[in-house]
Amino acid sequence: MACGLAWCALSLGAADAETRLAAAIELATQVGDDAARLRLRRAEARVDLAAGERGVAEQTLRATAEGFIALDLGVDAALSFLDLAALYLREGAEQSVLDKLVTDILPVFSYPEVGRETIYFLIWFQEACASERLTLGIVASAGQGVEWYRRPSLAWWSAPEIASKKGTGDAAAAALG
Description:
The structure is a single chain. By secondary structure, the chain is mostly helical. It has one domain (2-176). The chain contains nine helices and no strands. Helix 1 packs antiparallel against helix 2 and helix 6 runs antiparallel to helix 7 (116-130). It starts with a helix and ends with a helix.
């Protein structure tokens, strides 16, 4: 649950996002599994990138992608690779760097958790990259699509467990505050 709250806070740009992330990391260190720790490392990479720590962010994203592949978590690996693509596009990286990501992401297609819809988004990403038409918008849309079709079995993200504040009907606000 703490991991999901940290991701929500980061996504919403909440003022206490880094505090929530630190608390989630501490909790995951004590009781979390490898997958939870890797998801939080991916979140840390996004914070590092926002803070201008490009090298650290890139290394962390590569490490998380490899870690997710080792754990047979293809969807999470794909999201790490898409984060790398966004980083490279923002920098104006050469096409060869992006082409390597197209190759790096190939193992993701073989995991049973990666459904047909997710594969469509990843193929769209690959084709845009191969045709040199990849944009930040395509990367963002592909990432959102992959997230949308993620199986809801992740323990840290289960909407029914988030109670809304009385009278507001806003579950996200209740979860964050």
